[in-house]
């Protein structure tokens, strides 16, 4: 059975040991707004409301969007535009496996090139992360891993004529626990449709290390 938005919010709040009243205060919304968000009484909640709820619950906003629109029938895939092609040039910063500290804010920069015959206009790079939820036999939610949190889930791509190479920057905050984490992104057009549905897209993959251990495994002396 698919979990609905209300059930997820209530369970997530219990796991974080916060009441719905506290959730509303920290998210800057009223109880009425929260109830309307999960009951869909009349209209969909604003994106700002969902983002505030998600950050208070320490989950990615796309998780709430997935639950909100989970029963909606998706439109047919838009066919690729003939002559529209892109190429990955390289990682300008933070190549795969780069070390970062827990809670550190860093900026990932990719370089991509328009190798097609169609100019890129009105396009964006959109985060495709989603939270994997696993439940125990008792029905309790198990937290497998924390995620990178992007400052912005949608990054505008500047007008790019054929042949031009551009750099795209995305700011992230690393989770507090050590481990390897990723964030996955794809290009969409002005209508929100994927430009290259079969493309692997772009990603950032970093390793979170403990503050007392260097990247080489040496114990650092504390002051």
From TrEMBL:
Claim: Lipid biosynthesis is one of the keywords in the record: no
Residues of the signal peptide: none
Domain named HTH cro/C1-type: residues: 9-64
Pfam families: HTH_26, N_BRCA1_IG
Segments traversing the membrane: none
Annotated InterPro entries: Cro/C1-type_HTH, Ig-like_fold, Lambda_DNA-bd_dom_sf, Nbr1_FW
Molecular function GO terms recorded: DNA binding
Domain of life: Bacteria
CDD domains linked: HTH_XRE (cd00093), NBR1_like (cd14947)
Keywords: DNA-binding
PANTHER family: OVARIAN CARCINOMA ANTIGEN CA125-RELATED, PROTEIN ILRUN
Name of the protein in question: Cro/C1-type HTH DNA-binding domain-containing protein
UniProt organism field: Marinospirillum celere
